[in-house]
Amino acid sequence: MLPTDITSFRELLERFPTEQSCIDWLEFRRWNGKVLSPFVPSTLAWKCKTGNKYICKKTNKYFTVRTKSIFEKTKIPLRDWFMAMWLLSDLKRGMSAKQLAKAVNVTEKTAWFMAHKIRNFYKLETEAEYIPQAIEAKVYELDEACFGGLQANRHADKKIPNAAGGNGIDKTWVLGIVLRTGFLKTFALTARKPEYVQPIIRKYITPGSTLITDAWTGYNGLDDEYTHLVVKDGKKIARNVDPNIHTNRIEGAWGNIKRGFNGTYNWWSKKHLQFYLDEFVFRYNTRKMKSAERFFLFLDNVFSRVTQRDIINRSWT
Predict the structure, then answer these.
(1) Are 42 and 36 in contact (CB under 8 A)?
(2) 263 found inside a domain
(3) In this structure, are 154 and 260 located in the same domain?
């Protein structure tokens, strides 16, 4: 039974007071009483006489509930993982590695790897909603945002010559797509150019849908598959004709992400930018859920392994 009555961080700790209580819950969520081998699909296993180990009937390999999961080969107690996952999933503005390190009593380096392993799984609950064949034509709002330090805040040797503070010459651009029903998706871009933006739009948005964008010329040419409505920046000309033509929802999403960026993290590397974006997108798309529902929804997705090498070698494209 899902303990959805958990309403606070304190209640989470009371519900999972020991390491064994965390193991028992994970085993229930993963196998529901029928233990299957993580090495060979649909293969049963024997339970060892002592401890929480099992042995695969086909391969004779030992495993635990941690095997082939986010927790594999880590010495960090499951209770600490539960604490980290709750905090990152529940805090609207996110949590920095330094704050997380203090909360779970680990080093800042360990907290950073924990957080990124967790962020790696936030994207899972968003992919299915953006398969064009699976959904009907709808109304989408699209907008771009850039992330990076202002020229005015940089040391003289790090300033970009002849670059204005907000023009994004050396910043990272991100495309945001939000359904009018409130479902958000973000994509880190190699550059703010049509050849990077339009393939994403055509891949993830069903032909025949309505697109509402600003007046950036990078959206030109989408009329062949979509109904493209433009909100003129500044004067908002289109809204004078039809009040439903606006990008308020995507602008609101950017506002929340930007406040987390500026107030909690202060800086994101290009290499790991998508990790952080997926974190905010997950919270945005589950904002109507209770904290416990969001936590256990995420916990059901962590049964595949992510190593530190996977995190370090994350490529940004």
Answers:
(1) yes
(2) yes
(3) yes
DSSP labels, 48-106: PSSTT-EEETTT--EE-TTTTSTTTT--S-HHHHHHHHHHHHH-TT---HHHHHHHHT-
Same domain as 152, residue 272:
yes
**Domain identity same for 179 and 199:** yes
Rounded distance, CA 208 to CA 54, Å? 52
pLDDT tens digits along 15-72: 999 999 999 999 998 898 899 999 998 899 999 988 899 999 999 999 999 999 889 8
Express each pLDDT in 122-160 by its tens digit. Answer: 875 544 444 444 445 689 999 999 887 666 667 777 666
Positive/negative CA dihedral, 122, 262, 230, 284: positive
Residue 21 amino acid letter: S
Is 45 in the same domain as 182?
Answer: no
Q: Which range marks the domain in which residue 79 is found?
A: 9-124+292-312
Residue with tokens 């050849």: 195
Let me know whether 173 and 75 are in one domain: no
At residue 155, what are phi and psi to the nearest 5 degrees?
A: -65, 155
Distance, in Å, from the CA atom of 199 to the CA atom of 208, rounded to the nearest integer, reads: 16
Phi, psi values for residue 230, rounded to 5°: -115, 130
Task: Give me the helices (H) in 156-300, please.
Answer: 194-204, 237-241, 248-260, 273-285, 291-299
